[in-house]
Amino acid sequence: MQLVLTTGVTVLATGLFIAPLNAQLDDQAMRRALAIAQSTAAQPRISRLLRTTPAAPDGPVQQEAERIRHATDAEYVVIMDLRGVRWSHSEPRRVGEHVSTDPSLPLSGRETMQIDSGTLGRSARGKVPLRDSDGRIVGAVSVGIAYEGVRARLLGAVPGLFAYAGGALVVGAVAAFLVSRSLQRRTHDLAFSDISALLAEREAMLHGIREGVVALDGLRRIRLVNDEAQRLLGIGPEATGRPLDEVLGPGRAADVIAGRVTGADLLMVSGSRVLVANRMPTDDDGAVVTLRDRTELERLGRELDGTRGLIDALRAQDHEHANRMHTMLGLLELGLYDEAVEFVSDAVGVHRATAEQVSERVADPMLAALLVGKTTVAAERGVELSVSPDTRLPDRVVDPQGLVTVLGNLVDNALDATVGVPRPRVVVSLRSEGRAAVLQVSDSGAGVPPEHRESVFDDGWTTKRPPAHGKRGIGLALVRRLAERQGGSATVTTAEHGGAQFTVVLPDALSDTVRTERRTAPSPPGSGNFRALSDTWRCPPDGETSS
Predict the structure, then answer these.
(1) What is the mean pLDDT of residues 308-316?
(2) CA 3/CA 16 separation, integer angstroms
(3) In DSSP terms, which residues pair with 215 in a beta bridge?
(4) Interatomic CA distance for residues 502 and 507, integer angstroms
(5) pLDDT band at residue 78, thresholds of 50, 70 and 90?
(6) Nearest alpha-carbon partner for 235 in 258, 212, 209, 208
(7) Which of 81, 190, 171, 166 lies closest to 130 in space, CA to CA?
């Protein structure tokens, strides 16, 4: 195809060059004929001989004209009188005959030049009037240059032109061959149909898979983004061609995709989604980033953590209950009945006091149940978990599940922070300020250095060992995202005991009215630590389960 195009361009260029050259050579021949005619008519002797001598094949006018013809290599030099009769001709026998073309223009005083046909065939002609010494027109001079001579010059130039054109064609062919080989190497010897098929397959694959794909060029502009990536990142197809930072804005998502954060299986939060990103650089300094939605997996992981916490709480209660039963059995076997009654009363009173303290200050049943469960887990781990005296949260929570997520993450982080600390302690504060809910969790751990107080809320930032089901560094990021989505904030400062104090403000977490339904149920025998929650929690109907 390249050779055909090169040949066509060469032929076209040659034709475009020959066409004006032919016209240029014709014009030169006509001007040369006109110049010879003008110089002939300018000789006074010619006009004098025309008036004083007869028209004869061997007359002086014929002889003078032939001299000029031979000197100028013209085809003919014809001198005519006012009647159009020839007084000279390259064929002497035609002297005395009338000219074959119309002589009216030169005899009327006008000079002409043209390509025309006469007795000698086609020629380039120039005609001028012949004047005497007084300026009167006494005849005309017609000079012709054979047209075949012009054509011969043109044809003589054509081989040279084709030689140059052929050289250009050879150079073009070599260049086309080199370009073709280079393209074949770059396209792995794939034909155009194969490339087209691969492109169609790639488009179908990229827009059909359930993983997000984002391709960047060397300038970190989005070169490709498939449908799943648009859904996960919350962007549209118009993002193609725009800088990544302009589309996503500042944040961890842009840093991970741009490569400013390195590693494998990097976690980031986009809206309410938890994404796992992997980045592969390309040869042109760009990159291809794959995104997987792990929101469901992370939710299941958090549910697993919650279930493990509940199991730990139940295990702790079972262990504690077994120890008390053994103690109770021993006291009874020893006959120490009064001591047994006092022991049971003290044990029940401690649990009841804890549950009553929580239920009195936190009216929402889900949050109260969470705190009671976390208190048991904390006791098992040797951590003192208490509710601050200023805690007052009415039963007006709009999104209890969201607050449970926030509070659960903060308490878990606080419990982890107190590992290995002497006299570990965690204090929880929940209070209302109008429609706003303020949650504070402080611990006696090592605290958070000032330079890391913003980094702790980034996706994937953690100092903990990852659990079995996935990576850490998501809890605090989700806490801040949940707070910011409701127009609130999440901050960390230094606690009173030297550890960290996390504060979350949710402006519209409470409704204007108290919920009318309160869940009540009789407490099962022996469950002293749940009896205090009897006005805020009820068992599910038969056939249902509850945790």
Answers:
(1) 65
(2) 20
(3) 224, 288
(4) 16
(5) very high
(6) 212
(7) 81
The SS3 assignment for 218 reads coil
Please, what are the domains in the chain? 2-153 (3.30.450.20), 207-293 (3.30.450.20), 345-531 (3.30.565.10)
Q: pTM, whole model, 2 decimals?
A: 0.42
At 355, the pLDDT band (50, 70, 90 cuts) reads low
| HEC per residue, 119-185 | CCEEEEEEEEEEECCCCCEEEEEEEEEEHHHHHHHHHHHHHHHHHHHHHHHHHHHHHHHHHHHHHHH
Q: Where are the alpha helices (DSSP H) in 293-443?
A: 295-333, 337-361, 365-380, 400-417
Q: CA torsion sign, 162 to 163 to 166 to 167?
A: negative
pLDDT band for 546, please (50, 70, 90 cuts): very low
- In angstroms, rounded to a whole number, what is the distance separating the alpha carbons of residues 407 and 302? 13
Tokens representing 426 are 């965690």
Rounded distance between C-alpha atoms, residue 529 and residue 547, angstroms: 16
The pLDDT of residue 529 is: 38
Q: Which two tokens stand for residue 340?
A: 């047994």
Strand segments (E) across 495-547: 500-506
